[in-house]
Amino acid sequence: MGPVFVKEPPNRVDFSNGTGAEVECQARGNPQPDIIWVRADGTAVGDVPGLRQVLPNGNLVFPPFRAEDYRQEVHAQVYSCLATSPAGSVHSRDVNVRAVVAQYYDTDVNKEYAIRGNSAILKCVIPSFVADFVKILSWHTDQGEEFVPGDDYVVHQYYQSEVNNEYVIRGNSAILKCSIPSFVSEFVQVVGWQDDQGNSFNPNEENVVVQYYEAEVVSEYVIRGNAAILKCTIPSFVAEFVSVESWEGSDGSRYKPSTDYVVAQTYQPEIMTEYVIRGNSAILKCSIPSYIAEFVSIEAWIREDGEVYVPEYQQTDKIPQGITICHRHEFINSLV
């Protein structure tokens, strides 16, 4: 009998450096299958002293570690459990492992000034390095009052929706907007429109006048050899009901929007300098020229000393030829 999972690991495992984590993987079969942990590219992982250990029972262990021992290729990695035997093999779902370095943080609320009796929107500022792992349970005032985000604090008062006048030539179309007071706009929805004669119009109906229209292209002048962006102008009354299928040149040539017309030329990615206190983290951005940005992806980041950092969504040991690689010229003590 081929391998069958008895206990498949979860899709996501988040833990702090103070607690560590153990990811279980158990399988059965005849003969009893072996448990192997592999990366997203299929390469097997082994023990890393003090940081990662594969137990004889097949569990993957991440012991508690010091903040300075954080390693992205270990603690921010995509793993999967492989159960294999002479009778076959089976892969588990991807296991997204993410370790967080525990450190003190404090939330803050920026001041907002409003006229007495008016409303104000307050924002709870949470440090970015912990924002994904905490949630707001309640708000408290200086007087000890408590407000829960799930409750709807709406002032019950009279309001009226209005429609601004739009003047058009008889027979033409116009777009009308239903104005609703901001303090209640999130709690009501437009069910229908009514005119002075009592006629009703529902928003989900397509009230479009069938009439002739023509798409146009505005002229763009550029130096010979340069590129230009052309826009297909479609009348507003029909723009939501048509789509551009293709572009045609005056010589009869046709271009489809889904096709990528890119001029092959040399380009160079760059990284903006970021200064941080030693031991802190920084977010670096790889700047890629706009004309090529949609056609390349970042496979890795490389430091001046040759150390390679691979994004957790694309962990690979080899960098494919022709793929963009961002070089980091400034030394940052830690990169999380």
UniProtKB/TrEMBL annotation:
Q: What GO molecular function terms would the record report?
A: cell-cell adhesion mediator activity
Q: Which domain of life is it from?
A: Eukaryota
InterPro entries in the cross-refs = Ig-like_dom, Ig-like_dom_sf, Ig-like_fold
Any one GO cellular component localisation term in the record: axon
Domain Ig-like, first and last residues per copy: 3-96
Keywords for this protein? Disulfide bond, Repeat
Could you confirm whether the keyword Disulfide bond appears in this record?
A: yes
Q: Name one GO biological process term.
A: axon guidance
- This protein is called Ig-like domain-containing protein
Task: Please spell out the taxonomic lineage of the organism that makes this protein.
Answer: Eukaryota, Metazoa, Ecdysozoa, Arthropoda, Hexapoda
